[in-house]
């Protein structure tokens, strides 16, 4: 069994670990694995690459993703697709699935408000909060909106130190920032979850 050194703090070695798992699955376990036809994959990262527009890194668990397939997923600005076909039904289904997933998260009466770029990133942020014993009272995905600042401001009456938004990998435009400042809500923003947590803990 190969040994792959990794660092959870810096993220080093994660790519090597995934590569090792994939290679092992495709060689030693290839005859033992059953692959359903229905596609099941996990999004690792969404980024903009010059010359290639939006790039999405995924790990395919089941099924096959082929060139020219139509895909629908939730992005920072809501449902998005690379196809111009009539896919309103799929978009509606994606929105419903995300809403159900977000609603299923157990929240507290008192706690910080967490905003992340997508659901997997949201789960990562919440895991870090749990390790630090930091409660969260609300969650959302996509860019921070005035409504998010409004909800976070409710903590001023219950526990002022939690009247803040932890924005992980999402944008905060100037108008929303000014609105949050007016409401007395502090916004911590970072693309790195460890930097985000450190900023909050030092505040």
Explained architecture:
The structure is a single chain. Helix content is 36%, strand content 24%. It has 203 residues and is an alpha/beta fold. Among the domains are: 33 residues; 102 residues, Translation initiation factor IF- 2, domain 3 (Rossmann fold, 3-Layer(aba) Sandwich). The strands form 3 sheets. A 4-stranded parallel beta sheet has the order 6-5-7-8, with helices on both faces. It has a two-stranded antiparallel sheet with strand order 1-2. A two-stranded antiparallel sheet has the order 3-4. The radius of gyration is 19 Å and the shape is globular. The N and C termini lie far apart (44 Å). The model has no long low-confidence stretch (mean pLDDT 80).
Please supply descriptive tags for the structure shown above:
203 residues; alpha/beta; Rossmann fold; 4-stranded parallel sheet; two-stranded antiparallel sheet; 7 helices; TIF_IF2
CATH structural architecture of the domain at 101-202: 3-Layer(aba) Sandwich
Shape: globular
What is the first-to-last residue Cα distance?
A: 44 Å
Task: Supply the number of helical segments.
Answer: 7
Average pLDDT level: 80
Helical content stands at 25-40%
CATH homologous superfamily caption of the domain at 101-202: Translation initiation factor IF- 2, domain 3
- Name the structural class: alpha/beta
Number of strands: 8
Radius of gyration computed on alpha carbons: 19 Å
Strand arrangement, largest sheet? 6-5-7-8
The major sheet is characterized as:
4 strands, parallel
Beta-strand residue percentage: 15-25%
Reading off the top of the CATH hierarchy, the class of the domain at 101-202 is best stated as: Alpha Beta
Instruction: List segments where confidence is low: pLDDT < 50 over at least 5 consecutive residues.
Output: none
How would you spell out the order of helices and strands?
Answer: HEEEEHEHEHHEHEH
Which fold does the CATH topology of the domain at 101-202 refer to?
Rossmann fold
């Amino acid at each position: 069994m190969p040994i792959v050194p990794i660092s959870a703090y810096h993220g080093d070695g994660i790519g090597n670990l995934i590569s090792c798992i994939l290679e092992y699955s495709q060689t030693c376990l290839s005859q033992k694995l059953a692959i359903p036809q229905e596609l099941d994959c996990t999004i690792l990262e969404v980024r903009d690459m010059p010359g290639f527009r939006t790039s999405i890194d995924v790990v395919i668990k089941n099924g096959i993703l082929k060139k020219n397939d139509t895909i629908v997923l939730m992005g920072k600005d809501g449902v998005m697709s690379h196809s111009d076909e009539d896919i309103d039904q799929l978009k509606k289904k994606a929105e419903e699935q995300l809403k159900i997933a977000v609603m299923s998260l157990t929240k507290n009466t008192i706690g910080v408000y967490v905003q992340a770029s997508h659901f997997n990133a949201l789960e990562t942020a919440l895991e870090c909060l749990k390790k630090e014993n930091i409660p969260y009272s609300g969650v959302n995905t996509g860019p921070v909106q005035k409504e998010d600042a409004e909800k976070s401001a409710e903590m001023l009456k219950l526990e002022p130190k939690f009247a803040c938004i932890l924005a992980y990998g999402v944008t905060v435009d100037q108008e929303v920032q000014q609105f949050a400042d007016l409401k007395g809500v502090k916004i911590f923003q970072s693309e790195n979850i460890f930097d985000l947590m450190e900023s909050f803990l030092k505040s």
